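Could you help me review a protein record that somebody else here produced? Do not assume that whoever made the record got everything right. The record follows directly below this note.
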Amino acid sequence: MSKLFIFFTFIALAFGVFANGSENDTLGIYEIKIGDFSIKVTNFGARIVSVIVPDKNGKLDDIVLGFDTAQDYQESKNNYGAIVGRVANRISGAKFTLNGTVYKLIPNDGNGTNTIHGGPKGFAQVAWKVDKIVKNCKSPYITLTYNSSDGDQGFPGAVIASVTYQLKKPYTLIVKMCAKALNKATPINLAQHTFWNIRGHNTGNILSHELRLFASYITEQDEKQIPTGKLLPVKNTAYDFLKLREINEQMEKLPNSSKGYDINYVVDDGLKHEMKPVAVVYDEKSGRIMRLSANMPGVQLFTANSAKNVTGKGGFVYQTHAALCLETQGFPDSVNQPDFPSQIVYPGGVYDHRMVFTFSTKK
């Protein structure tokens, strides 16, 4: 076990042996909190395990889907709560060309033709190192890092990535994702893949949640969910969340073949690499409101379309549409779409991705 695990004071709530590392690599779940506001994180995939906030009556609930132990996440093979990368979302044909060289990746999507979320052993499926955890202060935080080697899943160059989860009053969660290309130019596009149900992770589906997205366009995609390169306006379509709308009401307008949402939205003013509003989620029953801002050009809306009989925390069984994901990101398949914002980071450059979640309530 590394000296960092001995040195830092942490709450280790669950442990397991990490199969992809050495026998001494230990998985844990760590907690930071301010008053009644707390989160838990596991170093397996640098995942958010829980977010606990009060409802309109002061009742505390965990509003994140997930599992009880770090080993459960390892065995589940999904992306609940994870940092996904080196390149989040889909890359067509599991390959791309950079500076005249064709890089072939490991396909794991689209019947074995495309790559998604960095490949079968992407950043979500490895143990990260807990670099620092600071508690008992006004703004507690935890920082985790991962070193990705040259050729990892087929990507060029070595990369060091980090994520910091930080709490601030009142009920604000800050996520900072950074990465450096150490020796070669390489694409980097990290995403935070938490599954949210702001009524409570064990309350059923999110179809009655109301959603607003500050996004006037989507990236059109083909039947394999690969962008065509076109941007389509959402106004007066099933994808229109320009004002607060019930998710189910809009979902019913989707084509009969659709099972829910899984598509990239173009954030308004998204090309400006600065913080901007992305989304608002509201649940009338609990009175909870979640606001999201970020500095990325896109956000993937996903409504847990494939969840079925997933046994989660406390033995609760998650079903279809049990949560929604709001994954701020660069556009999918940007490495093969010259008109999309570039995701290439050169040696000496820094990838910087920030998200701010603010939780509140109304009666």
In short: Confidence is low (pLDDT under 50) at residues 1-24. The CA atoms of residues 185 and 346 lie 4 Å apart.
